[in-house]
C-alpha cells in the first residue's frame, strides 16, 4: 500500500471515529510547562449496530508540545465499561459475528501508525455482548486490553415484574 493511500485511510479513520464519540471529561495526570498536560480522557460512544448499548472508554492522552500538535504517540492504556440503556434487539449480523468480532470503535493514538479500538463479540450461550478494547500498531501491537460485558436482559418495569 502506498504512503499516500495509507495517509488517506488514516485520515478517514480518524474523522469517522471522531464523529461517533463524545468526550465526557478528562483529568490531568502530568503538568507540562509547554503545551497541554498529559491526561486521561473519558469518551462515550454508542454501538453503531446495537441500539441502546453505550460504552464509556478511558484512555491516556499525551500532552506537551508534540501532543498539542497531534504528533505524540499515546500509550496503550485504556479501560472500558459498557451498559444497556434501553431495550436491545440483536440483528442476525451481530449474532453471526461471534468468534472473530466486529470493530465498533476506532481512535487514532498516534499520527499514523497506532490506533485504539473496541471490538464487539457475541456470546450466544450466555446472551451477552462482550466488548474488548486494545491498542495496535502497524508493526507491533500491545497486550494491554480491557473487557466489558453487557448481558441482554428484558427491559422496563413489565419485564422486571415477570
Automatic annotation (TrEMBL):
Signal peptide start-end: 1-20
InterPro entries: Uncharacterised_CreA (IPR010292)
Key words, A-Z: Signal
Name of the protein this chain belongs to: Protein CreA
Gene source species: Pragia fontium
